[in-house]
């Protein structure tokens, strides 16, 4: 095992994936608690599909995929938030509408040029080989910004998560903090697509929060547990991917699923004792 770990960390592309993946897992876990409690958990899935459409179009136009995707997905997050408030459509229906449209646009753009080339394919299913040094720097900066903003506005985010009306009555700018949450989620989704892929990135948002809620009840405890579970599951998943030669994204999701089952079993045992 020691030799395998030494070999694992000897590759630069794996180190890049571990750095970015660990940061993304932490960001996703922090935001996931909020989104699950506010019943917006599927927004991560919707935004990841928008990200795929953006990167496919960017690849078609020979533009840098990551910067383009960040701008487009943040814009989509704002639109989803505003349209759900103004149009009368339910959030899940609107997310499905936007995500399916984005996928269709992305596939059409790719098919009109070179088809689903390697870069687009990597974004769809994830690949630790796709992380460049530039990707690591951009992702690390964006992740640090997400974590910092979450920490700075933690009390306000806590307030709007549980009782937006009361928070508004006390002077909290609910709309601003909802928008901030949407932006942070959009950034996290985009920087996580390289490793997890657009089809699996939402699992990093949903699983840690649901897993932690099996055992913990307070917002702070669930948040801390989600952060720990997410980072640990990511590392175990990516190491298992290397050890057993399976796709990294799928491996990480399966480890998160195992953690959810274990926490659920422990919770059931506690209730019966």
Overall spatial form: globular
SSE order, one letter for each helix or strand: HHHHHHHHHHHHH
Radius of gyration: 19 Å
Q: Whole-number average pLDDT?
A: 79
The oligomeric state of the chains shown is single chain
How many DSSP E strands?
Answer: 0
Structural class: mainly alpha
Q: Which band does the percent of strand residues land in?
A: under 5%
Please give the share of residues in helix: over 70%
Low-confidence stretches: none
Please report the number of helical segments.
Answer: 13
Biggest pleated-sheet summary: none
Question: Brief overview, please?
Answer:
The chain is mostly helical. It is 82% helix and 0% strand.
Walkthrough of the structure:
- The chain is built from 13 helices and no strands.
- It is globular.
- The longest helix is centred in the N-terminal third of the chain and has 26 residues, at 12-37.
- It is mostly helical.
- The two termini are 37 Å apart.
- It is 82% helix and 0% strand.
